[in-house]
Design a protein that fits this description.
The chain is an alpha+beta fold. The chain has helices at 56-65, 221-224, 227-238, 245-250, 297-303, 308-313, 325-344, and strands spanning 6-7, 10-11, 23-27, 36-40, 69-72, 79-80, 87-92, 98-100, 102-106, 110-113, 119-120, 133-140, 147-151, 168-173, 184-188, 256-262, 265-272, 275-279, 289-293, 317-319. 19% of the residues lie in helices and 27% in strands. The longest helix is centred in the last third of the chain and has 20 residues, at 325-344.
Length: 345
């Protein structure tokens, strides 16, 4: 890259490149005295500059001008986007060398999905803050290659059916761009206001991002009759967390007050001190997260390993904040962690 990106006088380090720092308190083996030990993660990594090579002009245009560019062969007029090649693979000059591609060809910012994108819900640490998102390829203009891209919806949780092969999409740019493939993404064109559809360099803050609309579940006698068994199952399950080192690690440095509303009544869950406790509704008067589930029986399924994320994905449950799906991921990991520890005992 011809320029280094600075904030003030310091080079920018992208947040996603810095690993999470965590601590935990554990007990050493009995044969060593059973002392409490403080363990902490230590980051060991090497920072180095890596060139984007032939893709440098592409990312520089994204950063500076919010443009998507491709390359064109002056002889056969083949267009590729992104411009991952500098020479045409088909055309040759008189000396038998391959013809150089013309770079800087501006591509339209409306295209079509080449395929149906798979949806990522459980993302790795680098992409966790974007989940859920789709990963697909978009055909722009006359390009004979597809642009790899993340896809999102402005309507809430990304579910199957929103994107499929042939869906028209609009390229959207992040406000803060650092020369990565996450600097831009696509949303369905139908979700973009008509007055903005032809705007070049449209940024994410110009769209209306809908939060999930939560409505209180309808209280039904059939659901209320299940609550005694549900509460008993939850208490039994949660009592096992202190016996599971893996479950405690899942909750390390995590604190949340969660209000769970069901068709049989409401309850509270509190994550603190590497534990998850069942409390009354009044003890989570100001929750960090609200989960709504019509049938409380699904909570018993969760204690046995069923996924809350799958309940959300299939409209059997909803959450108040999609930006806090990491909490749901942690809840979904607990049954697996406790089962693995039980198998090893």
């Amino acid at each position: 890259m011809s320029e280094i990106i600075y904030k003030g006088n310091e080079p920018v380090i992208v947040d996603g490149a810095v690993p999470n720092i965590m601590t935990r308190i554990t007990k050493s083996p009995i044969e060593e005295g059973g002392h409490l030990c403080l363990e902490r993660t230590e980051a060991m990594y090497t920072t180095y500059w890596a060139s984007a090579g032939e893709l440098s002009p592409f990312f520089i245009e994204v950063i500076k001008n919010k443009r998507i560019i491709g390359a064109r062969c002056p002889k056969c007029k083949m267009v590729i986007c992104p411009p991952y090649m500098t020479r045409c693979p088909k055309c040759q000059n008189a000396d038998k060398s391959f013809v150089e591609l013309e770079s800087g060809v501006e591509m339209p910012q409306i295209g079509r999905m080449l395929n149906t994108p798979p949806i990522t819900v459980f993302a790795n640490a680098r992409f966790a803050r974007y989940a859920p998102f789709g990963r697909g390829r978009v055909m722009l203009g006359e390009s004979q290659s597809a642009l790899p891209i993340q896809v999102f919806t402005t309507t809430g949780f990304l579910k199957p059916g929103i994107f499929k092969a042939g869906t028209e999409v609009k390229i959207i740019f992040r406000k803060n761009r650092g020369g990565f493939s996450t600097d831009y993404f696509a949303v369905p064109l139908s979700e973009v206001p008509k007055k903005l559809r032809n705007k070049k360099g449209l940024e994410e803050h110009e769209l209306k991002w809908e939060s999930l609309k939560l409505s209180d579940p309808e209280i039904k006698k059939e659901y209320q009759s299940k609550m005694k068994d549900v509460l008993a199952a939850l208490k039994k399950f949660l009592s096992g967390i202190k016996k599971s080192p893996r479950a405690q690690r899942d909750l390390v440095n995590w604190n949340r007050k969660i209000l769970v509303k069901t068709g049989g009544g409401s309850l509270g869950l509190v994550i603190a001190n590497q534990d998850l406790k069942l409390v009354e509704k009044k003890q989570v008067a100001r929750p960090n997260l609200v989960i709504t589930i019509d049938d409380p029986q699904y909570l018993i399924g969760w204690t046995k390993g069923d996924s809350i994320i799958n309940l959300i994905r299939t409209d059997k449950a909803a959450v108040s904040n999609l930006q806090d799906l990491e909490t749901i991921f942690k809840l979904d990991r607990l049954p697996r962690s406790m089962r693995r520890d039980a198998q090893e005992r």
